[in-house]
Prior knowledge:
This protein is an all-alpha fold. It has helices at 10-21, 28-57, 66-82.
Amino acid sequence: MTNINISLPDSIKAFVEEQVAKGNYDSVSEYLQELICQEQQRQNQEHLEELLIAGLDSGEVIEVTDEWWEQKRKHLINKQQLGE
């Protein structure tokens, strides 16, 4: 693990220490790690949504039915069995 030194205004430092003191986190480090992980997840979610929208906007429109999903499932199983 790598250390990072940061400077915080007294009011933010007090808030962070208050969160730790309330028992929500074991340390200031754990609190900051949690905030960073939440931001990473938010950005990953945004990226996934962008990819999904791009996928929806690409190619021809098809109707996705139960039969379509069954064919897709069989196709993927066959690919996996063939080692593709």
